[in-house]
Design brief:
Chain lengths: 167, 167
DNA sequence: GCAACAATTGTTATTGTATAACATTTTATG
DNA sequence: CATAAAATGTTATACAATAACAATTGTTGC
């Protein structure tokens, strides 16, 4: 998760080392699950790994395809149950505007979900702007509305794709 | 659309006169369509009316049910095409987190979509907080991200439902 | 009016997203 | 090791959205 000032450096570029971030995500998940005494079972681990390794948001059926073994792919409910667990633990976020899922870059801290989503390359940057969070909570409070969850999804063009379009 | 300071008054209460807001929404839509020289055809009008009369966000198939005549309900594509038109004209917003649709309270002004959604009664309040919009744009700019559309959907409990739960 | 074209609607089929209900297996606990 | 809880397997279905093409309706210029 990036704060806004370093955002420009942190938007995932096509060539960054995604394998190592996937590894650290899995490691962190294992540690946190041990702490919380919940089980990161094989299926759950498998789903998290697929999502973490993906450069872009992954749809549930895309994940299913990648889970396919010699006997074909598992039933959809398998992946949805794993996703439910992973989301409950904060390891994965759901992007409502894409019906897709991405690994959380910072699963420790409980935070609102705020995303920049490139419509071209589908890269996703999670960010956390305190001003934004505060504005939402103030707005809710003014309406006597008690907030459970906030969804902020901004779609547009990432810098790399914008450059590519101008060529 | 409410600004934040008057939000508390404007969150739709269970007993407000929704019929009259539906009427004024339809009237406005007719006027705007005439101005723009686009056609508010029977199907489109019908879909808008159903959405406008609904106290809560309406799913596409819920709308279909309400469109059903003696010959059964129309094909899904009918309602989706009407929704495409109504969204293009700014009369209806889509709530990504619910896969549902609500009438826009202020179709004139072009604005980002910001919603408070009660998880209990499914009432929806559209609001517009300039601070929030600004924070999003600043964040995007810091990431050299050019924004097409922003979605802010806050789910929680509205004041009425919160009161009801404490009883 | 009417030919030509554009916009809208109708029809059928299909793809994608997600959950329900219930059976079976695996894991934790006394 | 018996039992309960958690997780997975299986089958079926509901809900969401679009594709492809045909038929109809509306608009425009002649």
């Amino acid at each position: 998760m990036a704060n806004l000032h370093s955002a420009i450096e942190l938007f995932p570029t096509p060539d960054h080392d995604h394998h190592s971030c996937a590894a650290s995500i899995l490691e962190a998940a294992e540690r946190i699950c041990a702490e919380r005494r919940v089980r990161l079972t094989e299926k759950r681990r498998q789903v998290l790994e697929i999502i973490a390794k993906s450069h872009t948001a992954a749809g549930a059926y895309e994940i299913l395809e990648k889970m396919a073994g010699p006997k074909g792919r598992p039933a959809p409910v398998i992946v949805y149950r794993a996703l439910d667990f992973l989301m409950a633990q904060g390891f994965v976020h759901r992007l409502a505007s894409l019906n897709a899922f991405i690994a959380c870059a910072n699963p420790q801290s409980d935070h609102g979900s705020q995303f920049l989503i490139c419509r071209d390359c589908r890269a996703v940057m999670e960010f956390s702007n305190p001003t934004l969070g505060k504005a939402i909570h103030e707005g809710a409070q003014a309406a006597s509305f008690s907030v459970d969850a906030t969804m902020v999804e901004v779609s547009g063009l990432c810098a790399a794709c914008a450059r590519a379009q101008h060529e």
